[in-house]
TrEMBL record, chain A:
It holds the Pfam family CO_deh_flav_C. Transmembrane segments: none annotated. It comes from Pontibacter ummariensis. Residues 1-222 form the FAD-binding PCMH-type domain. This is Xanthine dehydrogenase YagS FAD-binding subunit.
TrEMBL record, chain B:
It comes from Pontibacter ummariensis. This is Xanthine dehydrogenase, molybdenum binding subunit apoprotein. It holds the Pfam family MoCoBD_1. InterPro entries: Ald_Oxase/Xan_DH_a/b, Ald_Oxase/Xan_DH_a/b_sf, Ald_Oxase/xanthine_DH-like, AldOxase/xan_DH_MoCoBD1, AldOxase/xan_DH_MoCoBD2, AldOxase/xan_DH_Mopterin-bd_sf. Transmembrane segments: none annotated.
């Protein structure tokens, strides 16, 4: 680990000011990913601004009739919060499908949005990786890529963004509230993460020196018909090969609204609103779900070891939508 | 001699020390002025170091030295000086010997600094320029170059018998298939570590993670040319080893190198990724050809093995001995070839050769049974062998039939539905599978010492190891039983080269080997006590012989009359003895050579496979073990359960992934290299069947360290076939293979 300096911020504005003043500085909260990356010498921030003493630790109702999750609320506190369990069980399930109890106790909601890929090459500084060191090349494309992306890849990078929580947030159309040197702004979940293109080292649209302050959940939580299906190589403590967050609004057997987001397949949670719209007014049936699944995976590309994910993702979408349908919901 | 300590489920005598942190592992011996060494590993698999620039690392304040092949002190230069007790034939790897790179992640420098953090940081500043050469790490691509080694470090493959080709050609039903087992790396909880303490008088104390302190002592003294009396090796606790600690690993050599050079204590601990830089279970491919008559008699079996080794040592393991031990067949033939790759030499891993060989054998037999339309268990019974056909010897004992019967009953095998893909539970396909296995029950030479003091306390010692298996506990039980003492009056010492010699703890032979020495030395003390008692005037035991007396609760009395008794204390006081001391060696009996000595197991497994998504759950395991006399049913059960969990990993999860572009194993941490987690483990039932064996050793106990793993993976593979109708011949069965 490269030596670094450390300071603790007590207030949001001060935190932003401090990070802007020091080149190569990073915020640190739970540290469940950043500290590992520093120990592995994958990231070498010269300065850390500890934000754990800022507020941002509450879950409360927002003006839109939804919930606001403070950026520093832990993943565990979010998953087990009564209002989240009641109104956004999809989010609870997604969070609890990830990591371990110990990590969820430490990891924060804001930090979860910023966790980095788990690509083997990104973590091994003896190999080439465009995300870690732009311009060195991508080892994964011709190397071991079982757990890497099949959608939205580029010739420069096929990494995935590994979060479970964010897949549910994408399906729920959450919004990320940030503050920075130029003031506050709101980034919809769909725009938060970036596809690699020719700048795979930039994971998100959060600007340098911006701080995530909270996440807004809209009023609609799909609490009656939802499913989070995570397919992985062991029953716990493994990143998704493919995951699906699904939410349905049903009128009898007829679908009023459908949401589907995929995890483990791209550098961002994958949503295709036009494919979701195919279900509007349709019967909730395996056949119709299959069509949506096919639409989601159109244009997917495998790189050898991960070819199977294309078929697996289709099946997981169908499974998730069937589970959501079969739930004994109110409608 | 009857306190019934043997056979009693007993808590670990070191359990409290372990959970309170009082038990110290190699890296935990903190001494004043301890310096910390961090290893720099190579980025290439083959070539030469062109230049190694340590100036930036040396410029970091607090860095004492960066040791490389260019500036290291002299050490021995002959292969023989680097041959440890477990070295396979060849030229052992010598850390920092020269600039040649033989495998990826080879140690190329050791950075020694005041703190671990500084050393770790400075290690990132060491710049190495390489002259790269083309490497060969692709096993399949190199199979054409496979060779028969000059010498096997495992059993030489048995000579063929009968006429296998002809019998195969004539057989009614045939299976000719190939199975592949991947490379697996060792991931015990404790990573390899050594603390080498240099003292002013030139003495060296080495705390090492090792499965036998004698091996470190021999290796260190011969490679550095040090006199044995100057080096003291200790290893009181080992946090799991499973074979990874049989050979002294490079951190041990480097810690000593740095300590001698800097004349101060040095600690070197490997990181988890560095656990992927040395020995591993070799990738192994096996071709099986089996032929049977219509009624299910095995007529022919041919097994051809291709296994990975390094370019500098010929490692081999017992992959081909199992068919001749497990199936009666008049025509069998075997071959075992090696494929040399630019990787580190493979290393024994729990049931080396058995895990790989029995997986393939038991899968092939299952295929044959299905082809015959026979219950796989019935096939095994029909082709049961009472003889080790490899050596034409009878078994000292073999209660495998009892394992079948008791295991099948507990599992409910009778209710098995015959057809594959015929049982389901919602969207899960349910399958049942069975497999059996064997593991050697060896005894080696060992010594032990006993000291009985006037307070009635007994201390037994032997330089063996406890790698988490329960050696401390079972040796305490054996001694307590033999001399009729309560457990708390017995202390067992191990892991110290100042103690009497014991061989490496490996091959499931420690209870047999060290346990026999412990029993013998306690019997010697017993004899001494009796003789001493008889010297006293009016001794109630005057005319007794050893067979006439019993030791109970620290007393010696006549079997025929418990009132005729003397306490140990009295005996020693009257005899004016401060303590009684004995040291003995024990060795296997000549009688043993006339028998094949093996433990046996059977596993019945239920799996549930998600029909659409391929996810596999091992919902139930019943395993029955014939392991001779069970000294401690509690630690024994833990051993077998742990092995079963590992078996799940072998079947479904473990795989070291080689990137042939780099010649480097890429999934080198526990997030990426999967072993089972709690959620993967469901019901595991362990049955020990009654087995009497007077041949294996004086205790009648067979080892249990390895027998628990061998039959699990094939039973899972067979259950997956039964569930899905898909035969997966390439481990691990990850879910994509079932889509």
């Amino acid at each position: 680990m490269k030596p670094f300096t450390y300071s603790r911020a007590n207030e949001e504005r001060a935190a932003v000011k401090e990070i802007a003043a020091s080149k190569g500085a990073k915020f640190i909260a739970g540290g469940t990913n950043l500290l590992d990356l520093m120990k592995m010498n994958v990231m070498q921030p010269a300065h850390l601004v500890d934000i754990t003493h800022l507020g941002m630790k509450a879950i409360e109702e927002n003006q839109a009739g939804g919930l606001r999750l403070g950026a520093l609320v832990t993943n565990a506190d979010t998953a087990y919060h009564p209002l989240v369990e009641q109104r956004y069980p999809l989010l609870s399930h997604a969070i609890l499908a990830g990591a371990s109890a110990q990590l969820r106790n430490k990891a924060t909601d804001g930090g979860n949005l910023l966790q980095r890929t788990r690509c083997d090459y990104f973590y091994d500084t003896q190999t080439a990786c465009n995300k870690r060191e732009p311009g060195t090349g991508c080892s994964a494309i011709k190397g071991y890529n079982r757990n890497l992306a099949i959608l939205g890849t580029s010739e420069y990078c096929i990494a995935t963004y590994p979060s479970d929580m964010a897949v549910a947030l994408a399906a729920l159309e959450a919004k990320v509230n940030v503050t920075g040197p130029d003031g506050d702004r709101v980034i919809p979940m769909g725009d938060f993460h970036r596809l690699p293109g020719d700048t795979p080292h930039i994971d998100t649209n959060l600007q340098e020196n911006e701080l995530i302050t909270s996440i807004d959940l809209p009023a609609k939580g799909f609490a009656d018909h939802y499913a989070y299906v995570k397919v992985r190589d062991r029953a716990s403590y493994a990143f998704a090969l493919v995951s699906v967050a699904a939410g349905l609004e049903l009128d009898g057997d007829t679908i009023k609204e459908a949401r589907v987001a995929l995890g483990g397949v791209a550098q961002k949670p994958w949503r295709l609103p036009e494919a979701e719209a195919m279900l509007q007014g349709q019967q909730a049936s395996k056949e119709n779900f299959g069509k949506v699944a096919a639409a989601y995976l159109q244009g997917a590309k495998g790189y050898g070891d991960n070819d199977f994910k294309i078929e697996l993702a289709k099946r997981a979408i169908v499974r998730a939508l069937l589970l959501a349908t079969e739930m004994e919901g109110k409608s | 001699m009857s306190t019934n300590q043997i056979g009693k489920p007993t808590n670990r005598v070191d359990g409290r020390a372990k959970v309170t942190g009082e038990a110290k592992y190699a890296a935990e011996f903190h001494v004043p002025d301890l310096a910390h060494g961090v290893v720099v590993n190579s980025a290439i698999a083959k070539g030469k170091i062109k230049k190694i620039d340590t100036s930036k690392a040396m410029a970091v304040e607090g860095v004492f030295k960066v040791i490389t092949h260019e500036n290291r002190k002299d050490y021995a230069c002959y292969d023989k000086d680097f041959k440890d007790m477990d070295a396979p034939p060849g030229s052992p790897f010598r850390p920092l010997y020269n600039g040649n790179i033989l495998f990826n992640m080879q140690p190329v420098a050791l950075v020694v600094a005041e703190t671990l953090e500084l050393a770790r940081y400075a290690a990132t500043l060491v710049e190495v320029a390489y002259e790269e050469e083309a490497h060969e790490t692709d096993f399949e691509a190199n199979r054409g170059e496979a060779y028969v080694p000059e010498k096997y470090n495992s059993t030489t493959p048995p000579k063929p018998w009968g006429n296998p080709e002809e019998a195969l050609a004539k057989a009614d039903v045939k299976v000719e298939v190939e199975y592949a087992h991947p490379t697996e790396h060792h991931n015990p909880m404790e990573m390899h570590a050594t603390v080498a303490v240099w003292e002013e008088n030139g003495k060296l104390t080495v705390y090492d993670k090792i499965q036998g302190v004698e091996n470190t002592l021999q290796y260190i003294t011969s490679s550095f040319g040090l006199p044995k009396e100057k080096v003291h090796v200790l290893s009181p606790f080992v946090g799991g080893a499973f074979g990874s600690g049989l050979r002294p690993q490079y951190q041990s050599f480097l810690a000593v190198l740095a300590a001698l050079e800097l004349k101060r204590p040095v600690r070197v601990m490997l990181t988890r990724p560095q656990m992927f830089s040395f020995g591993h279970r070799p990738r192994t491919t096996q071709r099986f050809a089996l032929g049977a008559s219509k009624d299910g008699k095995l007529e022919a079996l041919i097994q051809d093995v291709f296994a990975e080794t390094s370019t500098f040592e010929d490692y081999s393991e017992d992959v081909v001995i199992w068919p001749g031990l497990l199936y009666k067949c008049d025509n069998m033939k075997f071959s075992h070839k090696l494929v040399a790759l630019d990787e580190y030499t493979p290393l024994d891993m729990r049931a080396p050769g058995g895990t790989t060989g029995i997986f393939a054998l038991e899968s092939a037999v299952d295929e044959l049974a299905y082809k015959l339309g026979m219950d796989p268990l019935v096939f095994r019974l029909k082709n049961y062998t009472d003889k080790d056909q490899n050596n034409d010897l009878p078994f000292s004992s073999k209660e495998l039939r009892a394992c079948y019967i008791q295991g099948a009953e507990k599992f409910g095998w009778e209710q098995r539905s015959k057809e594959p893909r015929s049982m389901r539970n919602g969207h899960q396909l349910v399958g049942w599978g069975v497999a059996h296995g064997a593991w050697e029950a060896q005894q080696a030479k060992a010594s032990a010492k006993a000291v009985l003091t006037t307070d009635g306390k007994l201390t037994i010692s032997s330089a063996t190891a406890d790698i988490g298996t329960g050696t401390y506990t079972v040796m305490t039980q054996i001694a307590a039983e033999t001399l009729g003492l309560p457990l708390e009056d017995v202390t067992f010492k191990l892991g110290d080269t100042s103690l009497p010699f014991a061989p490496l703890e490996g091959g499931s032979k420690t209870v047999s080997t060290v346990g026999s020495a412990v029993k013998k030395v306690c019997e010697k003390i017993g004899e001494k006590l009796l003789r001493l008692a008889q010297q006293q005037a009016n001794s109630p035991l005057k005319d007794a012989e050893l067979k006439d007396v019993t030791f109970t609760d620290g007393r010696l009395h006549l079997k025929s009359d418990t009132a005729k008794a003397v306490s140990f204390k009295e005996i020693m006081q009257l005899g004016q003895r401060e303590q009684l001391e004995e040291e003995v060696s024990s060795k296997p009996s000549e009688e043993q050579k006339k028998f094949a000595r093996f433990a046996h197991s059977v596993a019945f497994v239920e799996v549930k496979v998600d029909e659409d998504l391929g996810a596999i759950q091992v919902s139930r395991i019943v395993t029955a073990i014939a392991g001779g006399r069970i000294i401690n049913p509690k630690t024994a059960k833990s051993q077998i359960m742990g092995a079963a969990v590992w078996g799940i990993g072998v079947a479904l999860e473990e795989e070291s992934v080689m990137d042939n572009n780099y010649g480097r194993f890429m999934n080198h941490d526990l997030e990426k290299y999967h072993v089972p987690v709690n959620a993967d483990v469901h019901d595991i039932d362990v049955i020990f069947v009654e087995e009497q064996d007077t041949i294996v050793n004086a205790l009648g106990a067979k080892g249990l360290g390895e027998i628990g793993i061998v039959s699990i993976a094939p039973a899972i593979v067979n259950a997956v076939f039964h569930a899905t109708g898909k035969r997966i011949r390439h481990l691990p069965i990850k879910l994509d293979k079932l889509l």
